Amino acid sequence: MSDGSQIDYNGLIPNNVGLAEDLRVRKALETWHPGYVDWWKRMGPEGFQNSPVYLRTAVGVGSEGWAKFDFVRMPDYRWGVLLAPAIEGRTIPFGAHKGEPAWQEVPGEYRAMLRRLLVIQGDTEPASVEQQRHLGATAPSLYDLRNLFQVNVEEGRHLWAMVYLLQKYFGRDGREEAEELLKRRSGDEDSPRMLGAFNERTPDWLSFFMFTFFTDRDGKMQLASLAQSGFDPLSRTCRFMLTEEAHHMFVGETGVQRVIQRTAEAMKAAGIDDPYDIARVRALGVIDLPTIQKKANLHFSLTLDLFGNEISTNAANAFNAGLKGRYQEDKLTDDHQLTSSTYPLLRLRDGAIVHEDVPALSALNMRLRDDYVKDAAVGVGRWNRVLAQAGISFRITLPHVAFNRSIGEFAAVHADTQGRILPADQWEADRETMLPTSGDSQFIASLMQPVRERGSYASWIAPPRVGVDNRPGDFEYVKIEA
Ligand SMILES: [Fe+2]
Ligand SMILES: [Fe+2]
Q1: What's the 131 CA to ligand 1 centre distance in angstroms?
Q2: Is the pTM of this model over 0.85?
């Protein structure tokens, strides 16, 4: 069986898992393939399906240069099954089985738990493609249009990644789950995607950038914890997915950064010092900073809900079982079993937000969420450098974790962005200062006019510093057919 760093592109399904010799799984995937392509055509990007797009495709899974760039029509993209190379002698890094050889087959006692983890992760991948499908019509440039489609085809591949594991290791149940993954729909009343943030709308490009910055980053954290898994095929799958995920985070971070930069430049050129002089800023055809802050508040709080409840026995069980570790588990220096340690948590006690030490095993969701917040804050810091360099006093901040929550203990209260608990009517009265209003959304929508000339950008966003694959500024990233 092949586990090399080269990928076999000869068959219908590119792979480095030896599908050519694995008839059973190859047949299952080939049976699933037409339904996937059908889903892509119906629920993937609206329009542009016949336009050659300058996309990267993985040609190897090694750390050195795995991508080849070329013009591809999206339905012809070579979605495949790619695992990072096996690590000789790998052992289970944490939990009750710590130190035992990593599993190459599903441990029977944890079968249901593992399947559930795969299905939940798998469900998010097509969901985001569905959420973003209409954005091509309003792309601010060919560069951004191409980045959107790159993210979309890779989320499609992430679905393949989870479907491979389901079909290879879960037999009939796995095949049924794989079918269901193509049936649920983001935002559908009867058959929604499994997690809340993946049923929200992504109405405009600022939302897209915020989503890839905040919500894809949740994906990164989940994949990073699953990459630690004692179930080795899952670990290897997620390690490769993380290399793709890094690009999604880049698209989000630089996207918002370019919006902020353009706003800062326009304010300076017009001699506007007060970021709250919103009408004047908007008249310049750029997005005012308070509205950008409100969008960040919204996407951050929606994403925090994805981390689940503060106290979670599911998370403790998955850790104990050796299936899902902590972020960078392999770099941590404790006992990796957490049988006697505690973790400091923010909790709601008698209507107040307080710190409390709880058993570390029960707080794994919050530990991951705290790691997430730190990771996101680094990117926000880079946004703020743009403002500092422009001499503008405004700074983007992350709201308090209790703000605008629907899951977990803080769902019961109305906390403002500073974490102050307000009476419900007060919170409602202040809402328009914390979350985007319909007026804000209408203004942003009014800016969403497509720009399709090579090297041109919409008024509200700065060009990128460098092109994709070092291509020049006027490169035609998407060849749009009339
Ligand atoms: Fe993904
Ligand atoms: Fe992603």
Answers
A1: 13
A2: yes
